[in-house]
Every structure is written in structure tokens, then in C-alpha cells.
Amino acid sequence: MQFFQQKDLDKLNRDLIDQNTNLYNKTALYFLMNHILLQHERYEENYSFIIFDCSKDHSVRSNCPSITQDQVDKTVADTLKKICRRSDILFHCDNGIFCILTRVFEGDDTVLFCEKITRNLKDLSYKDCALEIKPKYGITFSKINDTPENFAQRSYDALKKALEKEEDIVIET
Questions:
Q1: pLDDT for position 1
Q2: Parallel, antiparallel, or unpaired: how do β-strands 97-103 and 169-171 relate?
Q3: φ, ψ of residue 116 in degrees (nearest 5)
Q4: What is the pTM for the complete model shown?
Q5: Which residues in the chain land under pLDDT 50?
Q6: For 36, what's the count of Cα atoms within 13 Å in the CB-facing half-sphere?
Q7: Is the Cα torsion angle 169, 132, 68, 57 positive or negative in sign?
Q8: Calpha distance 50→155 (Å, rounded)
Q9: Which of 84, 113, 119, 168 would bridge 88 by S-S if both were Cys, CB 3.0 to 4.6 A apart?
Q10: Residues 25, 73 contacting (CB under 8 angstroms)
Q11: What H or E segment, with its residue span, contains residue 154?
Q12: What are the chain's domains?
């Protein structure tokens, strides 16, 4: 008998994975973020948290007015899986809202990473629909004594500023 039974794995899949995108969901984000912040404090590993908006209301142009947010989200998720590093942890948190927890390695530039994502989302298609997605980003970096709530809120506040000021990327420190 195996320790993890199929019913256990099925429950984990239902509870932690967004069924439309097959990315981690917001519940998984909280638990993984908590673990990563402990890693940050113990081993001084730095992480960035990127939250970005790919919602039809703010960021998407399409030649198909009938395309749904779920279809856009699936297309974005499939693209992210192709272009992100294996060490990047991808999340679908809400309609059009995606997050990435990524380790900051020396020489990395989180802004350049966001620009790479934007380039790859610029010219997509879903079935016969052309999609042009231009996300807005909120970015923050891990700090000593951070909580998941504070870490996420800084990035979310940066995203709100990006949307309000119509800037592509806002960094909140």
C-alpha cells in the first residue's frame, strides 16, 4: 500500500490546482509563500513576487468579442508554462490575475523577466481568435519578517498603481 493514495492526490489536485489553467491557485499561493518567506529568513534567499493583470477589461484586445475570460486565462497559462523557468512557481489567482513567485538570482532582472512575458503574450491565438495581451505588473521583493499577507499586499498595491496610472510595471519596496 502506498502512503499517498489516489484519493489523497485527487483531493490535493482539487484543492490546490486551478482546474482551467492547471496552475496553482490562491490557496496554494498562501502556503507556498509562507514556506518561501521562511526560506528567505533562514537562508537569506531572496524572492520576488510578481502579480499581473491579463483581464479582458484592462489588458486584452481580440478580434473575437465572444472570447471568455476563462479562454484568455487558459491561453496565458499555456504560454507561461512554455517560457518560465522550472524554478518559477506559477499561480492563477482570479479572473485574469496571475502571480509568479521566483527566486532572485544574482544578475536576474525581474523587470526584464516581465518584459519577456509581455513579448510572449503580445501575439497569441485561441482557436480562430487573435489575442493581443498587454499585462500590467506589480512587483515586490521579500523582506526580513515578512508575512504572506504583507508580501502579497505590496505587490497587489503596486499592481493597482500600475492600473491607475496606466504604467506597465510598478515596483513596491
A1: 79
A2: unpaired
A3: -65, -45
A4: 0.94
A5: none
A6: 25
A7: positive
A8: 7
A9: 84
A10: no
A11: helix 148-165
A12: 24-171 (3.30.70.270)
